[in-house]
Specification:
The protein is an alpha+beta fold and about 1000 residues long. The chain is built from 26 helices and 40 strands. InterPro entries: AAA+_ATPase, AB_hydrolase_fold, ABC_transporter-like_ATP-bd, ABC_transporter-like_CS, Galactose-bd-like_sf, P-loop_NTPase, Xaa-Pro-like_dom, Xaa-Pro_dipept_C.
Length: about 1000
């Protein structure tokens, strides 16, 4: 009943995400030896529902030896997370059974070996199934009863199972206690969040939600649907094969995934010859293939949301039907709410809303936050503590008063991890060792409201650009990995020009934020609406940024002013966090226009974002704080030993880092002596991915100053991967890339000498070409004088059009603006990917002249293109790749080859032309291996491998033949096709 620690270092990314999707915080630590010996199990398939909705649930009862008809025991139903099965919670069931409970585990309909379709905790299906299982417990003589047909029963679960426990308690009053974990209050608010508007709640993490709009949580929704959309037995039924799929043998991972990485649903095995083709139902086949195990209405809602990214009444109806939000006033079972502080799926605001709704009915509620969630595993120590909390909750609320195992009253207080200023991963270790306990959850059921500290923010009105299609987008969280994405790079990725930032003064004292801060903003939008993302950064004295919890607050704004001088004021609730901002640090509110985890507007635009009341002293940031008693888990002595161990490890880490840094400095400080003459050098570079695919293998080549190098290869040859490694976007697994003699890599200073144009122009259509270039250069933070703006414009040949709006440009003009953008600062190395894409022949000719003239200044150009004729006419040198390997390198002349056919043109005209052609043919025919043919084009000589073109030309000149033209007939395209074909 707590987050399962996982060994992510050994798991593939896809398996890791599928486990996280299962949402299981019930940790499978080994049960005690005594418990294992005294617990027996009974497997059964339990029918539930009727008619077309009838299913069979795969169940297992875990029975303690102490439970009997003479000494009946209270019962607990354990529900698994999405994508899991009864195996996901088997270890937890054995642990609770070892404590004397009759524990029932089962696979929800549509999961494991249970039949039926997924209804997302629909009260008509999944919740009704829970009541069926409670009926089963009521019929047992070893289960304690409160009345006829009414067993003493608690329900616990995480994520999907947590919502089921809430809904079950609301719809079935026989439930006596529940412990829902990392789950939702409203699926609408979770998948279409919009944290704008005021809230009257006095709690620390109250989060408002717009009633009919929100920003679609695209990646999380897609991962959920992907897990449940795998067709299984239903597809066989649709094909006339009949029968539900049987699960393959294999060890269960504890989250519903088999050892082979499956979802626990099993792989069907059948004889294709048994299919009755006359019985095939095309509509059923389409349903099975597109919707997998989901019910049709849920599938339709997802497809609508995925296609439009908008919240329609039909989609909202499906989501709210499966949300506890509307029925919290029915819950009378004492509730332990456990929520994670690192959870981009169901944030702290979801638990806050559940707590308020349940407590308003007079029901006892205890709130526990822990350092973990859907995005980050808790420490093993913390998971063990959470298990004890859940067991203690059931001990008090399910056992009789005279039961010696009842324990102490857990109360209705509030517990959260001790705030630290550490990053998310390190913070979880600290949080697992120490927690803070408060007497009550602030503002709950008429209690004392949350305390808030106001901090002044400063910052001017700032333009925030939304790119067309929302690309490129900021990266702040990766579903299933969450704050780990930030930890990998040290910070989240914000795109220059796409955000506004407002900062406090450096703090004079540390501030411990526990909950969701609020801030008032002033926003204007040309269209009257805006999609924005607000977040709160911790900025250290050295400028390093940390995004606590890796979470953001989406904002779907409408009814905005279009006038930046008279913006609309909006109240924004930032994500709920637990974080200590140290003295000397600043709080920075960042409002961005993009986030890769969400659906984004397709149209490009520019918003205006400012602090509300900027003209009257500015806005303040209100941060919640909670006073409580810090408690070291496991005793003070144990805590100090742990602290000593952490300090020792930290010192060892610092020493190792120092030694490694010295080694790296020795390696990277070595500048190749010919670096200025060789702007680019690849040496044995290999890039392989975790799935075993090798995109680039042992690639070596170099480019000299003043060259125009063409990078050629079919799709999948590794060209783009090579360019991305060059630009520091990805790292090679082996080998070295040097730019001007310095090792290239992410963040390498030498990359400032490189300009690039890759994958689209990214220009703002409403702005002029010059304004686009100005905005781009300003985002680099470098002095305007260093841009060499006019020189770049002149080299690109943009003329007076540079001051017209980009939306009036032809495709060719847009490409030339993008080239000028890459040329800003006049980089010594220019890297261009498909620069002539979409251009007509005159524009291609002009672009060719641009690149030649740029290289003529002593700089170097690298061009990747599929237009071989243009590479031949533009480039001086070529590297040919296929299947990740270099197969040829050299000048265009060398690649075309020394042999092959040549067209000989003669200066002689008139009647003597034929005689001169005959004489030339005789000279050439006398050379080894040469054959000659008269054609309409002229005299064509096939030189063969023994005679070079230079030798053939010398023979003609020596014979006084008046040669006017001597042109190879084999073009680069011929050579390219021959090279690729051979490989």
């Amino acid at each position: 009943m707590r987050p399962r620690p996982r060994s992510g270092a050994r798991a593939a990314l896809g398996v890791l995400i599928s486990l996280l999707l299962a949402g299981t915080v019930l940790v499978s630590l080994p049960a005690t030896a005594a418990a294992a010996e005294d617990v027996s199990t009974e497997d059964a398939r339990v029918p539930s529902g009727s008619g077309a909705d009838a299913v069979e649930l795969d169940t297992t009862l875990h029975l303690p030896a102490s439970a009997s008809a003479d000494a009946p025991a209270p019962a607990v139903v354990l529900a698994h997370g999405f994508g899991g099965s009864k195996q996901s919670v088997a270890d937890d069931a054995r642990d609770l059974a070892g404590r004397g409970y009759v524990v029932l585990t089962y696979s929800a309909r549509g999961f494991g070996e249970s039949t039926g379709q997924i209804g997302l905790d629909d009260p008509r299906y999944e919740v009704a199934d829970l009541s069926t299982l409670i009926d089963l417990l009521a019929d047992r003589d070893d289960v304690l009863l409160d009345g006829d047909g009414d067993p003493r029963v608690g329900v616990a679960g995480a994520s999907y199972g947590g919502a089921l426990s809430l809904l079950g308690a609301a719809y079935d009053d026989r439930v006596d206690a529940i412990a829902p974990q990392i789950t939702w209050h409203s699926l609408t608010a979770a998948l279409f969040p919009s944290q704008t508007g005021t809230t009257d709640a006095a709690t620390v993490a109250a989060t408002p939600q717009a009633a009919d709009a929100g920003v679609y949580k695209r990646l999380w929704a897609g991962l959920f649907f992907g897990v449940g959309a795998v067709p299984t037995g239903g597809l066989l039924d649709a094909l006339g094969g009949g029968g539900a799929a049987e699960a393959e043998d294999g060890e269960d991972t504890g989250d519903g995934a088999s050892a082979s990485g499956g979802t626990g649903q099993g792989v069907p095995s059948f004889d294709p010859s048994s299919i009755d083709t006359s019985a095939i139902d095309p509509a059923a086949v389409e349903q099975a293939l597109t919707c997998g195990r989901f019910r049709a209405d849920i599938c339709a809602a997802y497809q609508d949301a995925a296609a439009t990214g908008t919240l329609t009444p039909e989609v909202a109806a499906v989501l709210e039907r499966s949300s506890p939000a509307a029925v919290l006033d029915r819950i009378t079972a004492p509730t332990l709410l456990v929520q994670g502080t690192e959870d981009s799926l169901f944030g702290l605001g979801q638990a806050d809303a559940n707590a308020r709704g349940i407590a308003a009915n007079g029901t006892p509620v205890k709130v526990v936050w822990y350092a973990g969630g859907h995005d980050s595993q808790a420490s093993e120590r913390e998971t063990a503590d959470l298990r004890e909390l859940v067991a203690g909750w059931f001990d008090w609320h399910l056992r009789d008063e005279d039961d010696p195992a009842r324990g102490e009253d857990p109360g209705t207080g509030f517990q959260f991890p001790a705030p630290t200023g550490l990053g998310s991963d390190l913070g979880s270790v600290q949080g697992g060792s120490q927690s803070v306990v408060a007497g009550a959850y602030p503002g709950l059921d008429g209690g004392e409201p949350a305390e808030r500290t106001s901090l002044a923010l400063d910052g001017s009105t700032q333009p925030v650009v939304t790119p067309a299609g929302g690309t490129p987008a900021a990266i702040t969280t990766v579903p299933g990995l969450g704050s780990l994405a930030s930890a990998l790079g040290g910070t989240a990725v914000e795109i220059p020009g796409q955000f506004a930032a407002f900062s406090s003064e450096p703090l004079t004292d540390a501030v411990e934020v526990v909950g969701a801060p609020t801030v008032d903003l002033a926003v204007a939008s040309p269209s009257g609406s805006a999609t924005l993302f607000a977040k709160l950064y911790d900025v250290g004295p050295d400028g390093a940024q940390t995004l606590p919890g890796g979470v953001v607050a989406p904002l779907a704004l409408s009814g905005l002013s279009a006038d930046p001088t008279a913006p609309t004021e909006v109240t924004v609730t930032l994500p709920g966090i637990v974080h200590r901002f140290e003295a000397g640090h600043t709080m920075r509110v960042v409002v961005s226009s993009t986030d890769q985890a969400f659906a984004l507007p397709a149209e490009a635009t520019v918003y205006s974002v400012a602090l509300a009341g900027a003209g009257n002293g500015g806005s303040t940031l209100a941060v919640p704080t909670v006073q409580g008693q810090a408690q070291a888990e496991g005793g003070t002595s144990r805590w100090w030993w742990l602290l000593a161990a952490v300090v020792a490890l930290a010192l060892l880490g610092v020493l190792a880092g120092f030694l490694w840094g010295r080694r790296r400095r020795r390696v990277t400080s070595a500048v190749e002596p010919d670096g200025e003459d060789v702007p680019l050098r690849f040496e044995g570079v290999t890039k392989a991915y975790k799935d075993g695919f090798v995109a680039v293998r042992d690639l070596s080549f170099e480019v000299r100053r003043g060259q125009v190098l063409g990078l050629l290869g079919p799709n999948g040859a590794g060209k783009t991967t090579s360019l991305r490694m060059l630009m520091g976007l990805i790292r090679p697994n082996a080998g070295r890339i040097s730019v001007f003699g310095h090792a290239a890599g992410p963040g390498a200073p030498v990359l400032s000498r490189l300009g690039s144009f890759v994958e689209g122009t990214g220009l703002m259509p409403h702005m002029s070409g010059r304004d686009n270039l100005t905005l781009y250069w300003a985002a680099t933070g470098r002095p305007a004088a260093d841009a060499h703006m006019e020189e770049a414009i002149e080299v690109a040949g943009l003329g007076a059009a540079i001051d017209r709006p980009v939306r009036r440009y032809s495709q060719g003009m847009r490409q030339r603006v993008a080239i000028a953008q890459a040329m800003l600062g006049l980089p010594d190395l220019l890297v261009l990917d498909e620069p002539t894409n979409g251009l007509d022949p005159p524009q291609i000719h002009a672009m060719r002249e641009v690149l030649r003239s740029y290289a003529a200044t002593g700089r170097t150009v690298i061009v990747s293109s599929h237009l071989l004729s243009e590479i031949e006419q533009t480039c001086t040198h070529v590297v040919v790749m296929t299947k990740g390997q270099k197969i040829a390198q050299g000048t265009v002349e060398e690649i075309v080859g020394t042999g092959g056919a040549v067209l000989v043109g003669l200066a002689t005209a008139g009647a003597s032309a034929d005689a001169e052609a005959d004489r030339a043919a005789a000279v050439l025919s006398g050379l080894p291996g040469v054959t000659v043919e008269h054609t309409d084009e002229g005299l064509v000589a096939d030189l063969g491998p023994q005679t070079s073109r230079a030798a053939a030309l010398q023979a003609l000149v020596a014979a006084d033949v008046a040669v006017d033209q001597f042109t190879p007939r084999r073009r680069l395209e011929d050579a390219f096709l021959a090279l690729v074909g051979e490989n």
